[in-house]
Write a structure and sequence with these properties.
11 helices; 2 domains; globular; 449 residues; 20 strands; five-stranded mixed beta sheet
Length: 449
Amino acid sequence: MRIGMSSVDITPRVGVELSGFGPFLNRYSVGVKLPLLAKGIAFAVGGRMAVIVNCELIGVTRETARQACVLIRREIPALAEKDILICATHTHSGPATGCLHGWGEPDPLYLELLPDRIAAAGIAAVNALEPATIEFGTARCEHIGLNREYETDAPPLETVLNPEWRSQCPEKTDTEVKVLKFVRPDGSLLGFAAYFGCHPVVCCQMTHWIHGDFPAVALIRLQQEFPGALGVFLQGAQGDVNSCVVHKPEAESLAALEVIGERFAVSIREALRNAAPIAVNDLRTVQFEALFSARSGVDIAYLERMERDNLARIHAPDAVPESQECRMAMVHLMAARKLLKQLRTDSLRGTWAPIAGLRLGPVVLLASPFEIMHAIKEEVTAKAVAPIPLVLGITNDSLGYAPDRHCAARGGYAADMVPIICGTLPFADIHRELVAALLKVDAELARNP
């Protein structure tokens, strides 16, 4: 087995608008706290190869991912499209990338160059392939995430910065970090990938600095301890899981960032110590398009009514353009017009999404482009046949939330609003359909070649 790792700077220019937290916030960056990176991991087992490129961004659109994939395959023809996973950490302290309508204005030049930089990371990882083995380790990590659907989203800072703080509903969050450790034949550390599901939102709408949030802080600290090694954060099921610090003023957020970053580093460090070798005698990949059905009743008449209602809100005599209501009305108006244009030329039965998988011996990455809620991940991992299933979000596209049944039944932001923000129709039954799609990947990867 051979493994290669690489890192390419994808930091935007200072002044670009940052993405996340709300519509038309004009949240322009004022400086770089930590550079943003695209990190490549290449695997070669026997005559097969696969590549993961992980981007410290809020998300990557289908178009950007496809362009990067084309560029990688142009240089590495042995790779098929299904052999390449392009994913994001989902930092809310990075540039807008065109994933969300109104959630930050993308910089055209940055978007034009982004596929080249992502591809460069993948190509460099393949070119850096060297003999290595994989070890797998876990460690407790109960002091970072909380499920905002079941408990207070932003507890007082003095409460959550107490070293003894724990989530009130730990079963609704990830309580472990899982680490793939890559080791050279001489025993030195080539690098590692830390898998954990939690929104990187320690720094929020009141902050204006570019960085990868708490995962990036943790990785940098660990890389300083292991010179020459590269750390990668693989985002899991974070749809309803926030970091325990969120929605705080800038000074408090930046101070807390160091604390939460160190907490994550402590857990990763322990998982690296606990890691034990796993046998990787095969490498397999799969990728297909799955249709996620749209909620009934969302048709041309519904969207025309939505267009009229939001126009009325925006043009009302007492409307305040700076208000949250007006800004959200504009987001809904933009989305309604986009969807109407699509529906008038083609019937939309739902949303097509790329579903992918990568098998490395007992470890299987089950990937989709959604912000997956914790209950969906729990059901997938409970039913998967893979010994070590890791459910990966925001991969090969960025399509907003995959709400679980509880959230979908309640409605609101994740189930009703975000699909519109992402320019798609609200989902009818994405919990069941996504579980089925990811388990299909798991089953295909488990079959004998």
